[in-house]
Amino acid sequence: MLPTTPSPLSAAHRLSEALLAARSPELVGEALMAAVQTSLAPDDVHLVEVSQDGDVAHGTVDGSQAPPYRQWLGAPSLVSRVIASGAPVAVPDAPGDPAIRQDLVERFAAASLLGVPVRWGGAVRFVAIVISRERRVFGEDEVRVAETLANQAAVALALLEAERNRVARAEQNAALTRAAISLNASLELVEVLETLSREANLAVGGSLAGVYLADGAGGGVATAGHNTPDDWKGIVMPHGEGIAGRVLKTGRAFVTNAYQDDVKRSPHPALRRLKTAVGVPMAWNGELKGALSVGFSEMRWVTDDDLRTLEAIAALAVAACRNAEAYEQATHAAVTDTLTGLLNHGALYLQVRVEISRARRTGAPLACLLLDLDDFKAINDEHGHQAGDGVLRKVATAFRSQLRDHDVAARYGGDEFVLLLPDTDAAAGRVVADRIAAASPVACSIGLAQWEEPLSADELIGRADRALLLAKRGGKHRVEVAGADIEEELELMELRVGSPAATLREFWEMVARAESARDALLTLPSFLRRVTGAEEVALYELEDSGDVVRTTFARPPGDPRARIFTRARIAAGPALEPRLALGAITRPSLAVLLAALDLKSTPRDRGTAVGSFAAFPLLHAGRPQGLIIMRAQRDMSSERVHLIAGLARQTMAIFAARPENGSPAAVQALAAAIEARDNYTHAHSEQVVSLATDVARLLGLSPAEVEPVRHGALLHDVGKLAIPNEILHKPGPLTPDEWVVMAEHPVIGERILQRTPQLGHLAPIVRHEHERWDGGGYPDGLAGRAIPVASRIILACDAYNAMITTRPYREAMSSADAMEELRAKSGAQFDPLVVEALLELLGAVSALRASPASVVSAS
Q: At a CB cut-off of 8 Å and minimum separation 6, what does 731 contact?
């Protein structure tokens, strides 16, 4: 017996009241589904939105946590039948009807179905689907009730759409006016195109918009956008792919309501949330020059008014490009170095991003050469700058003669040049570098780096710069290729000359010796004075009043000269905090420095001798807590300023560590020392910490027992601080003799922790982290439960993370293979209970990552 239902009149009346209160299509849809549920009492009500082209539909389930679903309408389905007929369609035997999508019938356990169109403007825009899980014949009265309710909703939706279109037309007119005005606001093409992208997005209510300019190969390069991520510019949309690629292929506007299906390979993660997109062409002089596209995070019908507005804005973009072409001739120097005719510094970085995008898309290698002319200053000094300019021009000509047409040459600055070699790996790039060095009219040093995912433009050039630094320090007139060995060689050189790396290690030794984090902060001035040779260094802390108070200062022992930083308190103005937040500031006198910081100076400050004064902010969570003020006899180099600023930041990282993280300052100090020594070891330790902590909790350890596991995992590699570089960073397997040295690191780690009173309880955990369950480990050959439980947990988590991490001498295992290895060695190398808990944890993580529900919630 079917359930009783309210009268059609009362249901329609209640729906009318709900529709009067609904202010969005979503609320109208909810009201319709609720009214159908109340009137017909089905098991489920779905509301399916039909795409503009009629190819796809998006379904929503009333009152259910089930995620929305999507179906193509090319094959027979209930939605297709309703659209074709424009009338209700009842299906009493859904499982036996071949014209119904059987996968959806099974998914929603449907026995009988009723599809009702929601139509206005001459098209079916939604289909309400009534589902009964028991066989049911929908009577004429029930069909009529459902149709009446759908018609009521259609009227409400039509009114909302009409109002939206009215508002949109006003917005479109305003956007067109603003867009036209923007053409006269700037002659910078990207600036104008970004303004036009914003206006296009606002005009049609999009989520993001962008302009792609043709790249000469049939595709487009992302040049300007609105609501696009920072790394979006420079990505390439290949010919025929994506919205812009299709517009550039056909020369016609393109609209899709199934963006994720129509765009097989999204060039950026930010585009993966789009459902609807529209693109219009940009053409002049009979050529397609680009495409303007707008994306929507919801399914959206794109009207003729929308298309006309976007085409009008695209025409303005064309005008902007024409203006830019004319302007380019007058501003050639903006992208070209006038002396050499090569690209200049700014244009270089745009080209690097384009080449990286191409290498990422095609998988082809990309090499970058950074060249520096050896002893070029002597040419200027001995022969004059005109002679030097002549040499630079000859060098540029020599470089061009050795390059292919599609290679890129730029003057990086002064006597430095950058060469980009597409489709060239490091080995081939080395051949080119040797050839260029031979062709150069003066000796040069060259650093070479090959692009690898996920290096940015800055990082690629930075790697080449480090290789160049080694070439210069190694005797000049050399070519060096960036790699792990470069950093090792530089570190060895830096150790011999008291370099930043050596200073950093000495700094962390000072921090580790400090009795507390505050002790480390108070010791910082004397440490900085000693390692920099400064004449005086003072620490000032920021009071709640806004003034700064001197906490401590340092000067050379026995210095008979008068102290410089004499005032215990300095009044501060309101600009102090924002100015400190800008970073280090250097000035030639104390009074000028204080004025730059908005600190009040005195006549005595103004009478201080001229030298090199610098202020370094002490920041926590971006907010100033104080500052270090320093005076040196000579100007401080930018490298020295960066080093001191870094030491100040690292001190505050220790000093301002939040108590709730549960780690004492000594743990933080040693963890930071590990990071300074070996970035891989630090990152590896952080991952082991997470696994070990969760495994400890799964094993039922108390919070007091979990804490040593967490700290022991963070510091389990602390003994590697004493392992020589040539062993720690060796790119291949260790020899037996080298293993003897490496196997000492647990004992060394124990000694380090024993010397720190707050960490002594962690020493046994670190010492026994490499013991095996069967007694075959080191250093003591302990077995079974004689091994501390924390050590047993860390060993298994450490081994798993090492197996899934790529090292220079081997590829990473898959997670599945690593888990199988854990199972194979359970009871031999690993504690079986620990392995069981770790596998349970890893399985739960894998299941969570694979869960469709997690994807829906994350989106």
A: 484, 485, 808, 809
